[in-house]
Amino acid sequence: MAWVQIRINSTNTQAEPMSDYLDEIGAVSVTFMDSQDTPIFEPLPGETRLWGNTDVVALFDAETDMQQIVELLKAEHYLNENSAYKIEQIEDKDWEREWMDNFHPMQFGKRLWICPSWREVPDENAVNVMLDPGLAFGTGTHPTTALCLEWLDGLDLTNKTVIDFGCGSGILAIAALKLGAKHAIGIDIDPQAILASRNNAEQNGVAERLQLFLADDKPADLKADVVVANILAGPLKTLYPVINQLVKPNGVLGLSGILSTQAPSVCDTYAQKFTLEPVQERDEWCRITGQLN
C-alpha cells in the first residue's frame, strides 16, 4: 500500500494536541522526532522559519487530499504562514517496526529499566520491564511517563496495591508490580489500552497480579495504597472526585501529563485533601505527588 506523510516542525507543548488532532482527521500513525537530529526543512530563498524542537510526523493513505489536511491544520491554528512542514510520498514498509528499531533500553531511578524485547538487557540484576512500542501510549520516552516511573522506583511498594489510572500500555502498573507491589489495577477508557496492558503484563509474567477495567466498569469501592494518573491537566481536575476516592487513607498519589504552567491549578484542586510535595519538572512537563490527609 502506498503512503504519504507530512512532517511538521512544532514544539513540545503543541506536539501532543496536534497529534490528537491528526488522529481525528485520519492519520494512521503519528510519531514525534527530535528536530535537532532530523534537519528535514530547507527554507526557500528569503524565507524565515520559526523553528521548534519537535517534529510531528503523520502518515496517511496515499489517496488522502493532503492540501485539505493542511487547510484543516491551519483552521485549528496548528499551521500558519511561518510554519515549516513537508509532504512526501514514501515507500511501503513496516513503519511501527521501523520506529521500534530506534527504541533502546532506558533507566528510570536506581533500579528500573524499560527494555524492548529485541534489545539485550543492560543489567540482569536490575528490575527489567520488557515493553515493545505499540498502539497504546506509554513507553517511557515521554517526560511525563519518565517522571512517573522514577517516582514509583523511589517508593517502597512491598505488599502494596497500585492503581494506574489511564493505564495506556500498562507500563506504570507493570513497573509497580516488578518493583514489588502485591497487586495492580489498570483503568482506561480505551479498549485498545486494556488489550495492550494485558499483552504487556503477560510478556512480563505479571498478568495474574494485574486487573484491568474500562473506566465505566470499575468497581465502585476500588481503592489502593498508591494511585498514579498520567493523563492531562484538564481531565485530572475534572476527575478529582473520582481519583480522590481511589486512594486509601494515608495512601499516596502521583499525577502527571501536566504542563508546568498548569501545575498551580492542579495543585489547588488536589490540595483540598492531599498534602502535596514540591512539584517536579522536566522539559515543560511536571509531576505532582502527595499523601491523602
From TrEMBL:
Keyword field contains Kinase: no
Organismal lineage: Bacteria, Pseudomonadati, Pseudomonadota, Gammaproteobacteria, Pasteurellales
Binding site for S-adenosyl-L-methionine: T145, G166, D188, N230
Compartment(s) of residence: Cytoplasm
Catalytic activity: L-lysyl-[protein] + 3 S-adenosyl-L-methionine = N(6),N(6),N(6)-trimethyl-L-lysyl-[protein] + 3 S-adenosyl-L-homocysteine + 3 H(+)
Superkingdom of origin organism: Bacteria
Record's keyword terms, sorted: Cytoplasm, Methyltransferase, Ribonucleoprotein, Ribosomal protein, S-adenosyl-L-methionine, Transferase
InterPro entries per the UniProt record, alphabetical: Ribosomal_L11_MeTrfase_PrmA, Ribosomal_PrmA_MeTrfase, SAM-dependent_MTases_sf
Gene Ontology molecular function: protein-lysine N-methyltransferase activity
Gene for this chain: prmA
GO cellular component: a single term: ribosome
Protein name (record): Ribosomal protein L11 methyltransferase
General function of this protein: Methylates ribosomal protein L11.
Gene3D superfamilies listed in its UniProt record: Vaccinia Virus protein VP39
